Amino acid sequence: MNYPYNRRFIKLIRKTLNLTQQEMSNKLGITVQCFRTYESGRSRGSTFFHERMMEVFGIDLRQNPDLHKIVFSDPLKISAVAYRHLSTVEKRGND
Fold this sequence. Notes:
This is HTH cro/C1-type domain-containing protein. It is a single chain. The chain has 95 residues and is mainly alpha-helical. It has one domain: Orthogonal Bundle (434 Repressor (Amino-terminal Domain)), CATH 1.10.260.40. It is 53% helix and 4% strand. The protein contains 5 helices and 2 strands; from the N terminus they run ααααββα. The chain has helices spanning 4-16, 21-28, 32-40, 47-57, 80-88, and strands spanning 59-60, 71-72. The chain has a two-stranded antiparallel ribbon with strand order 1-2. Helix 2 crosses helix 3 (32-40). The longest helix is centred in the first third of the chain and has 13 residues, at 4-16.
């Protein structure tokens, strides 16, 4: 199964935060191999991954796949510049 919400947003979030896959996985407390499956959309992500995204970055990835925007649970957990950029992004399909 493929998870388009992950594929559309996780890489964008990581790049906006200027993190490598290794740095992102370290912050989340998961292996880089595991993170890569989430970023590529090959896996939807574990409950632990989703909880850590909210705890560390204030971003809720547990959304309906038809949602086209990033949902923030706590926008103060990332820089104001990153928040402004990510909050205006809208992605549809495989773009």
